[in-house]
């Protein structure tokens, strides 16, 4: 291989640099965005860096989330001595650049490949509003999406050689992914399905390879879940049953793709049909590739992952309650789906023998892509105007509204001794209490868990820090607490919230006086 062959992916470096700049722009006002999940990751990472444990800010092991991302952040914090919140923006720039470079590396190996196609797709990846949001916040998806592409590369190498060392490498990537996001079982499923469908692999070898692959893939996940069960009694923390039926989840799935395609909310009536077409299209493409005995291409691996991941999100949302299907949840399938629904154009062009016709078809495809890219660019521009030009910042606990909040600033300066030691602090946003004050706090009970509510009301003394702006219908309300407990108001913040204390002994004394 000559020198020129080795640097044929050099153009991707330019797109990687553009990606770095894009994340820099969106984190330039207030740094990396911090959500409640970010605070869970950050507190566990600080615990790991300082003590080698994975405890969140309320001194309990992290079980709602897998362990790899906080460990990853903790290792960087321990090595550099810099807090995750401080290095988060720089880390995300690097991860986004790696994602773009790896995308270019993969597309260069499409069959057939096209440099113009690669440029258009890389631009689409950089401009995708969902990915720009993901890489503007301190979220585990920033690592997981990269792991998906790494898996495609390594598993593709296995399919080209059927070498056990590449099988083990792919399974190892899948295993790490499973302790980055629990949804990474879809990566395991992608490899497992391809192994089952591969008709080039002798049956005896196939059985042994499936066993090796499966054992390695689930090893870290089983260990993580077993540890969770040991320390908390639950494998992934308390979970509630879903309240959204299958068709509703399918609709939400479609609305995300409507957004990605530049549609407006007025066009959401297309969401459900679009979702059905997308998923059926992936099934048809996988069946066609199976019929052609052509399962080992990057394009087919991307299609298989997009199908399994999409079905997993829709089905799991139907049985288990978590946040409504949105761009964050579906972000790992954006790049594979983009490839799945555009790479066919390369095959179609290859089959057109008449040069004039081929050029016309190619021109139409390029115009359609430029139209799409223009739409998403305008969405990104609007977000830039809202968040950066207007000095607001990435939405979260570091945005302008929180930084200007009297309640948040009070918590930043509050003397911890003002809260008596040993008395628990509860809140409807316990992450916010920790982020601004550094104090441990507990979430008020969910309405679904009746025993937790009963145990809460048995407490003889506690503080409540209540944020009015963060209404969460999943939690018991402040009014409900006041009906059961005579709360003493300690401090109020007009339009923002208040701090209360409950002390059963004091209440008894007041009752005696009366």
From TrEMBL:
**What residue stretch is flagged as signal peptide?**
none
Q: Which residues are listed as membrane-spanning?
A: 12-32, 93-110, 116-135, 142-160, 166-198, 210-231, 268-288, 300-319, 331-349, 361-379, 432-449
Record keywords: Membrane, Transmembrane, Transmembrane helix
Q: What is this protein called?
A: Glycosyltransferase RgtA/B/C/D-like domain-containing protein
Q: Which organism is it from?
A: Mucilaginibacter pallidiroseus
């Amino acid at each position: 291989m000559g020198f020129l062959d080795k640097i044929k992916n050099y153009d991707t470096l330019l797109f990687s640099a553009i990606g770095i700049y894009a994340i820099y722009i969106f984190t330039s006002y207030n740094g990396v965005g911090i959500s409640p999940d970010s605070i869970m990751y950050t507190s566990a990472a600080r615990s790991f860096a300082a003590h080698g444990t994975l405890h969140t800010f309320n001194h309990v092991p992290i079980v709602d989330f897998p362990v790899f991302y906080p460990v990853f952040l903790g290792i960087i914090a321990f090595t550099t001595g810099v807090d995750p919140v401080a290095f988060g923006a720089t880390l995300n720039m690097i991860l986004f650049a790696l994602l773009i470079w790896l995308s270019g590396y993969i597309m260069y190996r499409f069959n057939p490949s096209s440099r113009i196609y690669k440029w258009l797709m890389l631009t689409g990846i950089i401009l995708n509003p969902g990915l720009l949001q993901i890489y503007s916040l301190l979220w585990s998806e920033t690592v997981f999406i990269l792991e998906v592409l790494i898996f495609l590369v390594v598993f593709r190498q296995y399919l080209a050689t059927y070498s056990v060392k590449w099988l083990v490498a792919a399974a190892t990537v899948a295993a790490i992914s499973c302790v980055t996001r629990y949804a990474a079982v879809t990566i395991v499923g992608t490899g497992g399905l391809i192994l089952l469908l591969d008709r080039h692999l002798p049956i005896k070898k196939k059985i042994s390879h499936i066993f090796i692959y499966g054992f390695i893939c689930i090893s870290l996940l089983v260990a993580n879940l077993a540890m969770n069960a040991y320390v908390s009694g639950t494998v992934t923390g308390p979970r509630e049953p879903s309240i959204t039926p299958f068709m509703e989840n399918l609709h939400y799935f479609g609305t995300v793709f409507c957004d990605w395609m530049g549609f407006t909310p007025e066009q959401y009536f297309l969401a459900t049909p679009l979702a059905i077409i997308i998923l059926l299209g992936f099934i048809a493409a996988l069946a066609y590739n199976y019929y052609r005995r052509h399962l080992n291409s990057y394009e087919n691996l991307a299609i298989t992952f997009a199908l399994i991941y999409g079905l997993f999100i829709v089905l799991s949302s139907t049985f288990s309650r978590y946040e409504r299907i949105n761009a964050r949840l579906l972000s790992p399938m954006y790049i594979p789906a983009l490839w799945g629904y555009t790479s066919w154009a390369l095959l179609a062009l290859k089959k057109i023998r008449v040069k004039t016709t081929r050029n016309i078809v190619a021109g139409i495809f390029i115009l359609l892509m430029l139209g799409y890219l223009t739409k998403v660019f305008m969405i990104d521009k609007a977000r830039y105007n809202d968040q950066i030009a207007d000095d607001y910042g990435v939405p979260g606990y570091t945005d302008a509204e929180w930084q200007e909040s009297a309640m948040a600033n009070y918590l930043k300066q509050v003397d911890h001794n003002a809260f008596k030691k040993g008395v628990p602090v509860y809140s409807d946003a316990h992450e916010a209490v920790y982020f601004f004050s550094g104090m441990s706090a507990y979430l008020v009970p969910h309405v679904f868990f009746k025993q937790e509510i009963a145990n809460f009301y048995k407490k003889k003394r506690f503080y409540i820090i209540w944020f009015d702006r963060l209404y969460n219908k999943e939690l018991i309300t402040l009014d409900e607490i006041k009906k059961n407990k005579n709360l003493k108001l300690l401090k109020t913040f007009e339009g923002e919230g208040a701090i209360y204390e409950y002390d059963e002994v004091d209440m008894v004394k007041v009752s005696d006086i009366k």
